[in-house]
Write a structure and sequence with these properties.
It contains 13 helices and 13 strands. It is of the alpha/beta class. The protein folds into two domains: 3-95 and 296-315, Rossmann fold (3-Layer(aba) Sandwich); 99-287, NAD(P)-binding Rossmann-like Domain (Rossmann fold, 3-Layer(aba) Sandwich). The strands form three sheets. It has a six-stranded parallel beta sheet with strand order 7-6-10-11-12-13, sandwiched between helices. Strands 2-1-3-4-5 form a five-stranded parallel beta sheet. It has a two-stranded antiparallel ribbon with strand order 8-9.
């Protein structure tokens, strides 16, 4: 019987699929320091993780029985895939499961910024009964998303899903992706079917120089730093739900303080799980704790996709 450790959890539907297929599923949470020893002592052959567990070289070398490492999510930056490859351990992920959830969080972030929801939700509990009219004046300068330009860096599944929703809101969309020249964006309209909208990609400079909102959907690496911010329109809003470090946090704060950047929405941080307090306490940043894929629907889809891929792997 093949033994699986789902160290960062798995949806009950996916767990049932694995059990029904004859796998032994361990759902205990093993602390990072003890993970390698646990894998070895319990002869674990499959390790599944989300973003919390780090599958580093030490873990991979200790897990002498490992035959597969699976990441529930898009990126695999918390897995030492190079070492896994040298040890002959395949690494898989679930890129199709969380696109809609992340895309909706991006749109939520834009609404939060354009109507000052992130700040009014901080101020109303303490000042709503004493400074109501002053707060009303403070937040009277909100803007609509319709007819604004959204720049998308990375036009994979998530980027396309964001584009679909932005187009549905009446936004203009500019996109940069070095591997995509033209993307057909599907807009699903209940009762009317699908509308296909072609988007021709532009250069990175063109996107960042002309957008009102910028959202990033890349697997890692710094995309936005001081040089890129200098090229942006005054009053731009930046959204990062991809990976910490894609936006240089120091340059972001400087841009916010100077007024070049109007607002930012961050779901990911360089130093997770202890983000820089300068970000957490900044009055112009809307924040969430890396919850892009943390919806009930996405968790179920991730569990199902993980189970299907693990089952298929051992069938072949």
């Amino acid at each position: 019987m093949i033994r699986i450790l789902t160290n960062d959890g798995i949806d009950e539907t996916g767990k049932k699929m694995l059990l029904d297929a004859g796998f032994d599923v361990i759902t205990d949470k093993v602390e990072q320091a003890s993970l390698g020893e646990f894998l070895d002592q319990n002869q674990v052959q499959v390790l599944t993780v989300r973003s919390a567990t780090k599958v580093d070289s030490a873990v991979l070398h200790s897990g002498k029985h490992l035959k597969l490492v699976a990441r529930g999510g898009v990126g695999i930056d918390n897995i030492d895939s190079e070492t896994a490859g040298k040890l002959g351990i395949p690494v898989i992920n679930t890129p199709a499961s969380s696109s809609d959830s992340v895309a909706e969080l991006v749109i939520a972030g834009m609404f939060s910024m354009c109507r000052f929801l992130y700040d009014s939700n901080r101020q109303m509990p303490s000042k709503g009964d004493t400074d109501f009219n002053d707060l009303k004046k403070k937040y009277a300068g909100g803007t609509e998303l319709k007819n604004k330009t959204l720049g998308i860096v990375g036009l994979g599944r998530i980027g396309k899903s964001v584009a679909s929703r932005a187009l549905g809101l009446g936004m203009k969309v500019l996109a940069y992706d070095p591997s995509v020249s033209i993307a057909n964006i599907s807009i699903d309209i209940h009762g009317a079917g699908k509308l296909m909208v072609p988007i021709q990609t532009s250069s990175l400079d063109e996107v960042i120089s002309n957008c009102d909102y910028l959202t990033l959907h890349v697997p890692g690496g710094q995309i936005v730093g001081e040089n890129e911010i200098n090229k942006m329109k005054k009053g731009v809003c930046i959204i990062n739900t991809s990976r910490g470090g894609v936006v240089n946090e120091k340059a972001l704060i400087e841009g916010l303080n100077s007024g070049k950047i109007a607002h930012a929405f961050l779901d990911v941080f360089t130093n997770e799980p202890k983000p820089d307090k300068a970000l957490l306490q900044h009055a112009k940043i809307s924040l969430t704790p890396h919850i892009g894929a943390a919806t009930k629907e996405a968790q179920e889809r991730i569990g199902i996709e993980l189970a299907e891929k693990i089952i298929d792997h051992f069938k072949n």
